Every structure is written in structure tokens, then in C-alpha cells.
């Protein structure tokens, strides 16, 4: 079962295809830019976990690229990417910044992509799940160590992440 993350419309994804095509051609220059499709987070995540996101506050999928990997045995124009923990920001309240999560139910996801023309096509999504098999979130999980999570308005304290990701020898992202 596959899944993914957030960035505003018009986000330009920069891809260094020369490196994936042939490592000897790798250079320190941008050779192309590609745009992710405008997919609301609610639509994206609810395909895999129906009803898991009720309100995405009109935030689109983005912040994909916390990691980028090319399978040396795969097609040279297909890549695996990792989303971040979901849309978040900081709002100052009484002189202190509070970490806000606009879609606290967001499930970080591994995404297989392919550039086509000037766009990125999502080929596959793999959600990151906990030991229960349910989606984890990108929320902090260590109270008194991690930042305290707040809702999008920075007024309500949210729960910390309680599940740990499920790891297997075949990879941390595959479900049994």
C-alpha cells in the first residue's frame, strides 16, 4: 500500500537528471525544472486511507523531496522521493514561536515519480505505517524534547505521535 507530502501551487521541483543518467556527467548545475500536479492533500491521502483527512485547509501536496533516490537498475527517468512530515509552520504567540501543523493527520509517504514534459507524474505511493498498520503522522513524538505541536491557529495543543514506524529486513516501507 503506497503514500506522500505538501508544497504550495507553482512549486518547482529541480531534478538533476544528468547524475541519474550517467554519474560521470554529474555537474553542479540545474538542467531542468518540473512542476508537481496540484493535488489537494485530502484527495492524495484519502485514496489510500479513506476518511483519514477531513480538512486539509486547501493545502496542496508539496514538500516532496526530503530524500531523492534513483534505482540504478530502474529506468533512468524514474525516481523515488520522500515527503516531509506535512504542512507546518511557526506562529509567534506571546513572543514565542509555536510549531503549527495544518494537517496533523498527514502521513509521510514514499513516492515514485517520473518527469514528463515540464511536469512530474506520480507513478506509485507507499504510505509509512506504524506497527499497527495504520498511517503514522509527521507529528513530534518526544514530549519535553521535541517542539510542542499546535493546530494551524497555534491555539490548540495537539497530541504527540504515538506510533513508531514499522521496519522489516525487506525495507521500512513495505507492509506484510
Mean pLDDT equals 81
Shape: globular
Structural class: mainly beta
Number of helices: 2
Number-wise, the strands total 9
Biggest sheet strand line-up: 3-4-7-8
Distance between the termini: 10 Å
Fraction of helical residues: under 10%
Order of helices and strands: EHEHEEEEEEE
What is Rg?
Answer: 17 Å
Tell me about this structure.
The protein is mainly beta and 176 residues long. The protein has a domain of 103 residues. The chain contains 2 helices and 9 strands; from the N terminus they run E-H-E-H-E-E-E-E-E-E-E. The strands form 3 sheets. A 4-stranded antiparallel sheet has the order 3-4-7-8, with no helix packed on it. A 3-stranded mixed sheet has the order 5-6-9, with no helix packed on it. The N terminus and C terminus are likely disordered.
